[in-house]
Design brief:
By secondary structure, the chain is α/β, with parallel strands linked by helices. 39% of the residues lie in helices and 18% in strands. The longest helix is centred in the C-terminal third of the chain and has 19 residues. It is globular, with a radius of gyration of 19 Å.
Length: 342
Amino acid sequence: MKKIVIAPLAALSVFAALPVTAHADGVLSVYCSYQKDWCEAMKNAFEKQTNTKVNMTQKSSGETFAQVKAEASNPKGDVWWAGTADPHVQAANEGLTQPYVSPNAAKLHPWAKNLAVQTKNHAVGVYAGPLGFGYNPEVLKKKGIAAPACWKDLLDAKYKGELQMPNPFSSGTAYVAIATFVQLMGEEPAFDYLKKLNANMNQYTKSGAAPVKAAGRGETAIGISFIHDAVAEANAGFPVVSVAPCEGTGYEIGAMSIIKGARNLDNAKKFYDWALTPEAQALGAQANSFPVPSNPATPLHPKMPKFETIKLINYDFAKYGSSDERKRLLARWEKDIGATVK
């Protein structure tokens, strides 16, 4: 029996357990939707530079969106940093975040500025990364299975029980995957693909990076995730090969928003401004995270995915980040796939 969700990895629960202390001058509450090391690096660097106490809560982007929505009448967070743009766009559409134009916003890549325009300055891009998958060559060799190169390859019966992908209700990565398949194939073929893909799935994970982490540790052969997550596993010494699927693929823009009703608004704006600087964005590669930074003055690590070498679709962030479309596609996934594996 497949499991729709697994318990969060220890690395993903470190900050979630930290209490949110009373709001006061010199305090900032940040909701972080990335992996532990980069969240921690951002927290430590900002505290050191500004003498501001940062209370960090780390959850996936889907979980963070749900928390921000649940707390709308009594906000406990100030800034939501990172995570796929789609839930940030939905939060903007539902009035859960507030507009802010940083003096550093004009310095960013066009795709980061376009997100700000689309959301009427409720969100801005902080990084970008293409969707793909990573496989463990040692596991495949041991089982005598050829490595996949395309999305269609993952439907082959030889991969039965060898795949993992995240759950779209907790992971923005998985929602980007669904939206990518819909845009790449058309909606009906995409959901037919997802149903067939489900036959080869051994688990739907809570976080977006968990599938490639599992692949690196030999717990599964293949994990669907963002390519930079697979690169990070390989850079950490795990046997993971990243793949940009041959048919083409979508990509994420990692976003940042200020939560509506932020009690520490001045500090939230300071963090927002700082997070768009090359100095802050360089912390990603230092923390073994390799998405492309939104500030072009940030030095690029040689292991970062090169967009110009990957066949990318023209991902429609406005449509697939809208509340109605996101809710509709998630409901259909739950009805067609999720409900069959619980």
